[in-house]
Amino acid sequence: MSVRDAAWRSWGALAVLQAAVAAACALFAALLAACLPSPYFHWLQPGLPLALAMLLRLGRRVWPGLALGLLWLAWGEPGLLLAERLLLAASGLAAALFSAYLPPRRSRPFFRQADVLAFLAGPVALGSLLAALGRVFVLLPAYRHQLPELAWAFARVWLGDAVLLLTLAPILLLAGRTERSCGGGACWRETSLVAGATLLLAALVCCGLPGRGGHYAILPYLFIMPLLWLAFRSQLLLAHALALAIVALALAGIRFETGALAIAPAIDESLLNVALLGLVQSVTLLVFGALLEERRQVERNLLQANQSLEAKVGERTSQLAESEARLRLMADAAPFPLAMNRLAGGELIYANERAEELFGTHLHPSRALRVQDFYVNPQEREEVAQALRLNGRVADREVKLKNAQGREFWALISCSVVKSDKVWYAINGINDISERKRLEQNLRDANASLRRKVEEIERLQQGLRDQALRDPLTGLFNRRHLDDILPRVLDHMLALHRDVAVLMVDADHFKRVNDTYGHRCGDAVLTALGAYLSDHFRSGDIVCRYGGEEFFVLLPGASLDAAFAKAQQLCEAVRAMEIDALGHTLSVTLSIGLALCPLHGEDAESVVLAADEALYLAKQQGRDRVCVAAPIQMLS
User: Fold this and answer.
1) N vs C: which end of the chain shows fewer Cβ within 10 Å?
2) Predicted model pTM
3) Who's near 200: CB < 8 A, 6+ residues apart?
4) Is residue 423 exposed (0-12), middle (13-18) or buried (19+ Cβ within 10 Å)?
5) Residues whose CB is less than 8 angstroms from the CB of residue 488 and which lie 6 or more positions away in sequence, other chains included
6) DSSP three-state, residue 352
7) Helical pair 510-517 and 519-536, crossing angle rounded to 10 deg
8) Residue 492: enclosing H or E segment and its boundaries?
C-alpha cells in the first residue's frame, strides 16, 4: 500500500470517528430530551456531559465531531437566528474544551479529594458557567428590559448544566472501569437486593406519593444512605447510576404532577427540587467515594510498608544471627560492622572494615578511640555497660550513635562479654537501622492520618442523622422527632408526678399569604415564626414544626396557668410583630390550643388530640386566641 493510500485511509478513519462522535452527541441529547420536560430542555446544553467524557477519553482530536453534534443540536432549536445557533454551539464546545483541559487531566478524576474539588470547581462550576453564558446571550434580546428575570434564567441554566455534568459525567467516565468486587455471588445478591429495593422505594416516593405542596420533599434525600452503602462496597459506578435513576423517577413524577418533589402547578419549583436532589446526591457520592478511595490507598500503602518492614526485620535478624557466629572468630571478612573494646574503660581495640566505614574513621595505635565517643547519649552507654556486667550480653538494642563527622543515626547493637588474660572485653555487632526507623515513623504518620479520616467520616454520618430529625425550612425539630420523644417525656414526667403542657399553634389564614404573595413568601413567614418560637421558649422546652403552618410546643414541668400565660404572651407578641418576607411587610396572628398532661390525658395520643380540639375551638371562636382543652370526664 502506498503512502497516499495510507493517508487516505487515515483520513477516512478520522472522518468516520468524527461522524460517530457527532451522532453519539445527537443521540445522547435525544435521550435526554425524552426525560426532561419541554421547554426547559432547550435551555440547557444536553451534549456537554458526553462532550467532556469524549474529550477526556479520546483526546482533543474529536473536537470537530463534537462541534458538528453541538451545532446540529443548536440548529434544531426553533426561533433562533444563525448567529444565535452558532453562539450556542460555540459556548458548548468552549465549555467542554475548557473543562477537559483543566487539572486534573485524568479520564476518571474522582478518586482523590483534590481531584474531586478540582472537578467541582472546574468542569461543574466554571464549565457550566461558560455554557450558560451562551444561552444567556441568546436570551438577552427577549429579557433586555427584565434584568431580574434574565438573572433568574441565567441561574436556572447554570444550575441545570451543572446538575447534568454532576449526574451524567461520572457515569460516562467511570464506565468500563473494573471495580473491586466484595467477593462471591452472595455479595452481588446483597448489592442487587439493596439497589432493587432502593429503586422500588424511589419509584413509590417520587411517582406514587401525592405532592402536597412539597411536604414530602425530604424523603428522596434519605436514599443517599443506600447510595453511600453501594459506594462503600466499591460499587461507585452502580451508586452513580442509581442516583441518576432516582433523579429520572423524580422527573417522571413531576411530568405527571405527583411524587414527593412535585409542587403543582409550580413546575419551576419542582424542577429546582429535582436539581437540588441531583446536586446533593452527586456531590455526596463524589466526596464520599474520594474519601473511601484515599482510605483504601492508605491501607494498601500500609500493607506494603508492613510487608516491606517485616521482610527487612527478618533479613536483619538473620544477619545478626550470622554475625554472632562470626564474631567468635573475629574474622576481618565479617559482613557487618564489628568492634571490640575493653569493658572497663571502653577503649576500642578492634574494628573491622565495615565498622570503620560506618563510623567514618580508622583505628590506629597512635590515636586512642573509646566507645563513649560514638554514643549520642552518654547515659545510654552506661546502661549498655551495666547490662553487660549483669547479664553478660545485650541483644538487639536500639541506640542512637554518631560517626566521627557528627552524623547521627539509629543502630541495632548486639554485644557479648568475653574474658581474655583476666581482662573483660565486649564484642559489638552494629547494624544501621535508620531506614527502618524512617519507615516506622512513616507508618505512625499514616496511622494518624487514617484515624483523622475515620473521625471525619463519623462526623459526616452524625450530620446526616441530625438532618433526618430537623425540618429543612425552619430548622426546628420535625414531627418524626416529636412522635419519638413525646411519649418518653410524658412517661418521665408522670413518674415524677409533674405536669407537662403542650401547645398546638396554628398561623391564622395562612393560605391567604400563600395565595396572595406566593409560597416562597409563605416559607419566609414560616421561617420567621419558627425562629421566634425557638427564641421565645425556654431551653428545656421542645419546639417542633407539626406540619404546614402548624407548630407544636412541649413545656415539661409547666403548670396550666403558666402555660396559658406563656401562650397569651406569644399571641400578643406575634400579633404586634411585623415580618419582612421577600420585600413584603406582613402581620399574622396565632390560634393556640392548650392541653395538660395528666389533666387532659396521660398518653401522647390523648394529649395531642385534646390540644388539637382546643385549637379547633380557638378557630371557631374567631382565631387569635388561646383555648384550653376540656378536662377528661372521669367515670364514676
Assistant:
1) C
2) 0.45
3) none
4) exposed
5) none
6) coil
7) 140
8) helix 479-495
Measured distance CA(400)–CA(376) in Å, rounded = 6
Burial annotation 255-282 (CB, 10 A radius, 16+ → b, else e): beebbbbbbbebeebbbbbbbbbbbebb
Query: In angstroms, rounded to a whole number, what is the distance separating the alpha carbons of residues 320 and 310?
Result: 15
What is the predicted pLDDT for the residue at 191?
A: 82
Residues designated as active site: 549
**How far is it, in rounded angstroms, from Cα 29 to Cα 498?**
66
424 three-state secondary structure:
strand
**Phi, psi values for residue 444, rounded to 5°:** -65, -40
DSSP state of 75: H
- 88, exposed or middle or buried, with CB in 10 Å at 0-12, 13-18, 19+? buried
The strand pairing partners of 375, in sequence order, are: 401
Contacts of residue 634, Cβ cutoff 8 Å, sequence gap at least 6: none
DSSP letters for 192-256: HHHHHHHHHHHHIIIIIS--GGGTTTTGGGGGHHHHHHHHHTT-HHHHHHHHHHHHHHHHHHHHT
CA distance 178 to 173: 12
Q: Cell 390550643 maps to which residue?
A: 593
Grid cell 389564614 in the structure block, residue: 509
Among 60, 59, 73, smallest CA distance to 27 is for 73
Supply φ then ψ for residue 320, to 5 degrees: -65, -40
Over the stretch 348-365, which tens digit does the pLDDT of each residue have?
777 777 777 777 777 766
SS3 76: coil
Residue 212 cell numbers, joined: 402536597
Contacts of 65 (CB under 8 A, 6+ apart): 17, 18, 19, 20, 21, 22, 25
d(CA 286, CA 224): 12
b/e burial code for range 47-66 (CB count within 10 A of at least 16 → b): bbbbbbbbbbeeeeebbbbb
Q: What is the rounded CA–CA span in Å between residue 393 and residue 131?
A: 77
End-to-end CA distance of the chain: 112
Those residues with Cβ within 8 angstroms of residue 390's Cβ, 6 or more apart along the chain or in another chain:
none
